Amino acid sequence: MKYFYLHGFASGINSAKAIFFKEQFANINIELECLDLNGKDFSRFTLSKVINELKIKFKQYDKITLIGSSMGGLISLNLVEMLRNIKKIILLAPALEFNSHWDKLVGNDNLIKWKKDGSLPIYNTGLNKEFLLHYGFYLDMQNIKDRDFNTKNVKIISFHGIHDKTIPIESSRNFSINNKVLLNELDSDHALTDALPEIWPKVAEFIIED
């Protein structure tokens, strides 16, 4: 089994969650590979490109477990419908129903300005730098599946904060009901960093289950 961590949008491999899980996996003698999804030029970032690159990369492995944080969770679920070797997924505040939240995340005025200007300033915490993200990212997202996934061939456990102001917990509740997935609702926000000590024992048990 190969284990990969997929970080969230405008995050990186040195995020608090990525470092935490890499260390915890190492403590039980499992290598967790944290993948940098930002690409060579984040200003031209699209989810379709990341999904296609990971699809090619993951084909070489027999069995895979993914940890997907926020948009990394959305990527994980899209890959499940393309690959049969993904056996388990740990979702951390997955960006489900993402295309329903644009007005709240960006604001209608900013969406109009983004389209007009062709780019929008986005600070990437993983790269510690601000980028002008091209409008093509928004257009690409309209074609990314963000709900109604077929997950019958994969085991999934999900964690979501009840105070999440980025991706409402209702999106994970909808997903868990429709896919019979165990959802752990936590007294936390979108980052979930304060809940990591509570999350880890459940993740550790999940990854060693048959």
List the helices and strands and how they pair.
Elements: E1 2-6, H1 16-27, E2 32-35, H2 47-58, E3 64-69, H3 71-80, E4 86-92, H4 102-105, H5 108-117, E5 119-124, E6 129-134, H6 136-141, E7 155-161, H7 169-179, E8 182-186, H8 196-208
Parallel strand pairs: 1-2, 1-3, 3-4, 4-7, 7-8
Antiparallel strand pairs: 5-6
How would you describe this structure to a colleague?
The chain is an alpha/beta fold and 210 residues long. It has a single domain, classed as Rossmann fold (3-Layer(aba) Sandwich). Helices cover 37% and strands 22% of the residues. It has eight helices and eight strands. It has helices at residues 16-27, 47-58, 71-80, 102-105, 108-117, 136-141, 169-179, 196-208; strands at 2-6, 32-35, 64-69, 86-92, 119-124, 129-134, 155-161, 182-186. It has a six-stranded parallel beta sheet, sandwiched between helices. The longest helix has 13 residues, at 196-208. The protein is globular and about 50 Å long. The model has no long low-confidence stretch (mean pLDDT 96).
List keywords for this structure.
210 residues, alpha/beta, Rossmann fold, 6-stranded parallel sheet, 37% helix
- Quickly give the structural class: alpha/beta
Helices, by number, come to 8
Give the second-level CATH assignment, the architecture.
3-Layer(aba) Sandwich
Q: What's the story with the biggest beta sheet? A: 6 strands, parallel
Write out the strand line-up for the largest beta sheet, numbering strands in chain order. Answer: 2-1-3-4-7-8
Kindly identify the CATH topology.
Answer: Rossmann fold
Strand content: 15-25%
| Count of folded domains | 1
- What is the typical, i.e. mean, pLDDT? 96
Outline type: globular
Question: What is the H-and-E element order?
Answer: EHEHEHEHHEEHEHEH
CATH top-level class: Alpha Beta
The CATH superfamily title: Alpha/Beta hydrolase fold, catalytic domain
